[in-house]
Structure formats: structure tokens, C-alpha cells
């Protein structure tokens, strides 16, 4: 079986710079509980959702208006046999223009169907990008996780297990 990295994309009317700035506002679309810097090259930040998921990210590429790449330095999943499935994977946000629109493509390099977390992670990333990040870009208000407030249906299910 050929590995196929997860990818999802959106198209918006806002400028590449606005999309870039929204991506870097991680607290505005992923989680209000992010700890650490999220805007500069080499920034390291921590994400956690209850005792279900936590990870440590490093920004390893940042090209304004074009691209942001995070390296997963460490990861913990409560719900998988291999608790570190994301470790050493990369999350790439690529921004491009097309017919007066700005395209954003997220590719989680290393998140493949063979992973136990694939379906849950696919659904969560899709929701964060298609809904929360899109809303942050287009309206200025995303739908991040807040304290004790799961964003996605999968996180709601996981937190009740």
C-alpha cells in the first residue's frame, strides 16, 4: 500500500498575507490553550486537549504569504496503541493565488491511513481547516477549542471515553 499523506484545502477571497496571519494565530482557530510562540521561525509551542491529546510543535519554515511548516517534536494520544504516532511528522500550510482567490492547502506529512489515529485526525484537521480556520480568515472569528470545550465531534466522543 502506498502511503498517502492527509491533505485538505480551502479557497478564500482574502489575501495571502491575511491567510498567513490567520494560520499563525493558532489560538484563534485550533485551541485557546496553546502555550508558547506561534508566529516566528523556530518558535516552539504546546497543544493539549484534556488528557486525550498533547503535542509539541516547532515552526521550521515560515515564508510570509506563502508557507508555514510545523515539525511535531513530541506527541501523546490517549486513544492509540502507539501514543506517539505524530512524532517527527510535519504539518505544512501552503498558500497560493488562483483566479483572484487565495488557496490554502494543509498537508500533514506522515499522517497516513496506516495510522491508528488516521480517521479521527483526518476528521479533526478537516473541521479545523474547513470550519474554524476558514471562519477566522473570512470573519475574524474562528472556533478553537476552549477550556473544557471540544471543537469536533470526535473530540467530544474521545473526552467521554
Topology:
Layout (H helix, E strand, L loop, with lengths): L5 E7 L3 H9 L1 H4 L5 E2 L7 E6 L3 E11 L3 E11 L12 E9 L2 E9 L8 H22 L13 H8 L1
Antiparallel strand pairs: 1-7, 2-3, 3-4, 4-5, 5-6, 6-7
Your description of this structure?
This protein has 161 residues and is α+β, with helices and mostly antiparallel strands. It has one domain (6-160): START domain (Alpha-D-Glucose-1,6-Bisphosphate, Chain A, domain 4). The chain has helices at residues 16-24, 26-29, 118-139, 153-160, and strands at residues 6-12, 35-36, 44-49, 53-63, 67-77, 90-98, 101-109. The protein has a 7-stranded antiparallel β-sheet. β6 and β7 (101-109) form a beta hairpin. It is globular and about 45 Å long. The relative contact order is 0.22. Residues 154-161 have low confidence and may be disordered.
Looking across the biggest beta sheet, what order are the strands in? 1-7-6-5-4-3-2
The Cα radius of gyration reads 15 Å
- Enter the CATH topology name: Alpha-D-Glucose-1,6-Bisphosphate, Chain A, domain 4
The top level CATH class name: Alpha Beta
Q: What is the distance, rounded to the nearest whole angstrom, between the alpha carbons of the first and last residues?
A: 31 Å
Mind summarizing the main beta sheet? 7 strands, antiparallel
Helix share, percent: 25-40%
Sketch the topology as an H/E string, one letter per element: EHHEEEEEEHH
Oligomer: single chain
Number of helices: 4
* Uncertain stretches: 154-161
Strand content: 25-35%
